[in-house]
Amino acid sequence: MLRQSNLPAGIEPNAEREQIATSVQVICDRFDDDFWLEKDQKNEFPSEFHAAMAESGWLGITMPTEYGLSLIHISEPTRPLYIS
Fold it and tell me: What is the DSSP letter of 4?
C-alpha cells in the first residue's frame, strides 16, 4: 500500500491510487537521471517520455468527460506528480 507521506494532504491511500502510482512509476523508471540530464543540457523536449506517457494513457487525464475522460476524482490525475 502507498505510504501516507507520498500523498497530498487529505488524500487517503487505496487500491486504485496504488495501481495508478505503480503504473506511472513503471514508466518513470525507464527514464533515469542521465536521460533527464541530457535533455536538460541539450534543452530538448523529452519526447520519448511524453510518448511513453501518452501510449499508456496518462496524457489528457484532466480533460472533460465529453472528450473521453473516465470519471475519476481530480486528485487521481495529480497522483503521478507525487511519485519518485
Answer: G
Q: Which residues contact 4 (CB under 8 A, 6 or more apart)?
A: 12, 13
Does this model's pTM top 0.70? My answer is no
Percent of the chain with pLDDT over 70: 57
Residue 23: Cβ within 10 Å count: 16
In order, the DSSP letters of 6-42 are GS-TTPPP-HHHHHHHHHHHHHHTTS-HHHHHHHHHT
Task: Please tell me the distance from the alpha carbon of residue 43 to that of residue 15, in angstroms, as a whole number.
Answer: 38
Rounded to whole angstroms, the Cα distance separating 23 from 74 reads: 18
The pLDDT tens digits for 16-55 are 887 887 888 899 999 999 999 999 999 999 999 989 998 8
